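Comment on both lines for my students:
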Amino acid sequence: MAEEFRYALIVLGVLAMAGLALHGWWSARKTSQQAQSRFMPEEKSSGAPEGFDEYGVGKKRKLAPGEKPQPKPAPSVAPRSDRLREPAKKFREEREKTPEVHEEPSLSFSADDDVDVSHDTQVADEAPSEVLILYVLLPEGQEINGAMLLPSLLTLGFKYGEMNIFHRHQDSAGSGGILFSLANMFNPGTFDLEEMDKLQTRGLSLFMTLPGPGEALQSFNLMHSAARKLSDEFGGQVLDNTRSVLTVQTTRHYVEKIREFQRQQLIRN
């Protein structure tokens, strides 16, 4: 009796365990289906109308007898502004008018090329010029009378000549190259030799050009000496190129400028 009761309990235990396993498998499957239906709904729940697939494309409709197919609509193109097309149109027209031509650089040289190069070199090697200016200026209210100025200029070796101004030549007699010149500081800047007695001016301009005939420092000394004598005679002052009173330091600056110009000349030669 006890033996049979024990076998019965074993059978009941096996059935209970099998039932628990089946219940657990069924619960897990139900939970999985619910999760799948929640996050991945079926195609029927997408709300697609009947007769259309999931992309909204319906079945091909058959034409009735005598019915013509409808023409396909022309693709719509957004209108373009003429302003946006104008730059491209102009660029295209200019490019068609003046096509680009890419030429390979040539390494050949001809006799004409040699002549052009030598000409350019000759122009590049031309010596630059320098102008040194001194002024003789009288105070306001005072003027130089032409009738008194002419004898003074002749005494200093000036000769009336080109451009209607006075020049100091290498030779005091008026021959040789022009060392420096003298002009009217005020308009018209020239002198009328026949009406010198009517001339009234407050200032004179003395200037020399580098390079010039003779030795540059000697020419400047002569010009500076002439300016000093004229200023002393008519009661004026000697001014530099900036129309400031000429000082010893400014005079040295003129001398250094002449020496630097001569040094550059020697370097180029």
User: Anything to note?
Assistant: The chain has a mean pLDDT of 77. The two ends are 145 Å apart (CA to CA). The chain has six helices and eight strands.
